[in-house]
Amino acid sequence: MLYWLFDQIGDAWTVLNVFRYITVRSAAAASTAFLLSLILGPGFIRWLKSLSFQQHVREEGPKSHHAKSGTPTMGGILILISVVVPTLLWADLANSFVWIALLAAVGFGGIGFIDDYAKITKRQNLGLSARAKMLGLLGISAILGLWMYWQAKQGSFTTQLYFPFFKNFHPELGIWFVPFSIFVLLATTNAVNLTDGLDGLAIGSSGIAFATYTAIAYVSSHANIAAYLDIPHILPAADLAVFGAATCGACIGFLWFNAHPAEVFMGDTGALALGGTLGCMALMTGHPLLLAIVGGLFVLETLSVILQVTSYRWRKKRIFLMAPIHHHFELKGWHESKVIIRFWIISLLLALLAVSTFKLR
Fold first, then answer.
1. Tens digits of residue pLDDT in 211-235
2. What are the angstrom distances between the C-alpha of 321 and each of 194, 308, 316, 332?
3. Is residue 298 assigned to a domain?
4. Could you give the 3-state DSSP secondary structure of residue 54?
5. Residue 63 resides in a domain
6. Is the peptide bond before 324 cis (omega within 30 degrees of 0)?
7. Count of structural domains within the chain
């Protein structure tokens, strides 16, 4: 909205032409999202408390977490507001990539909201049935996959699959891009959701991942940089960088209240929205496989659960003291803050490794 306004009057007020630059609008979107979170946060948390929207901690979870019962949840609503509003203000709304990303945020966030609300009304840590939740996530993923494939057919971006560390190997997926995108979206939503078990862990790691893909979106949209790095030039990804920057700002703003000891939890509303939009950014920037490195922490958390369940079913033995793996280290005696900060460090190192793959090919 502001982008359109400044673009209209830019000829008369030349100083406003600065807002035509992606870097400036991205910085404005990030700042707006952060400030929105800080301004709305305290009142929003009080509102959640007044509605008794409180977290019900799993009985089988670490005993140290039982004190968190009663903390307001569904903070993902604040994240969504802090992402959607700055995006609408600073992005070019004629860009279809922006609307795909917004649909991912609102769609996956909506499934998470229904799940969170069901948990609150049942007063336990069980919301939607696994079947209903998966069907909802599958439906949103299918819509997004088909929309992205249609955009690819229009020439907006490529359905070739680029492999990290391999310069000349990028097979064409064609129509198989749709099921592949569904898999990526389902995987990222569930992976971020599994990581959301400690104060600030998921939101901090997500912020690092979104910052990485915001940078990738920018360089992908820049013809000269894309040619230099030998990556696909995706012009519409420019305003995807604005969306990514807004999400980064929202993550930092929410972390202000979600840092240990958390004043509010994001719930599935936030976790599913962040996971879905991260998957969308990976797909639309042409680097979905790089997500395995950028979101390596999310992969680790998911693998720990898969290994734990498989081992117990086949061997009747557990590999970890508790899964996901962050609980394992808690039960090993690490303080919650130590687990969080060390996992953030891992996320940051993986993000740097992911960026370095553009030249290590």
1. 999 999 999 999 999 988 888 899 9
2. 16, 9, 13, 8
3. no
4. strand
5. yes
6. yes
7. 1
Q: Each residue of 184-215: pLDDT tens digit? A: 999 999 999 999 989 999 999 999 999 999 99
Beta bridge partners of 172: 160
Residue 5 in any domain: the answer is no
Instruction: For residues 107 and 138, give the distance between their C-alpha atoms in angstroms, rounded to a whole number.
Output: 11
List the one residue out of 220, 258, 316 whose CA is nearest residue 76.
258
Radius of gyration in angstroms for the set of CA atoms belonging to the chain, rounded to a whole number = 20
Residue 35 lies in a domain: yes
Q: Taking the complete model, does pTM exceed 0.90, yes or no? A: yes
How many angstroms separate the CA atoms of 277 and 247, rounded? Answer: 9
Other CB atoms within 10 Å distance of the CB of residue 140: 24
Tell me 163's DSSP state: P
- Respond yes or no on whether the N-terminal peptide bond of residue 232 is cis (omega within 30° of 0): no
Residue 39 neighbours by CB distance under 10 Å: 12
Q: Measuring CA to CA, which residue among 178, 143, 174, 148 is closest to residue 159? A: 174
Q: 2 to each of 22, 89, 93, 275, how far by Cα in Å?
A: 13, 5, 10, 28
Q: Which amino acid is at 176?
A: W
Helix 336-356 vs helix 296-315: angle between axes, to the nearest 10 degrees?
120
Residue 203's identity, in one-letter code, is I
pLDDT of 14? 61
Q: Supply the range of the domain harboring residue 83.
A: 24-161+173-288
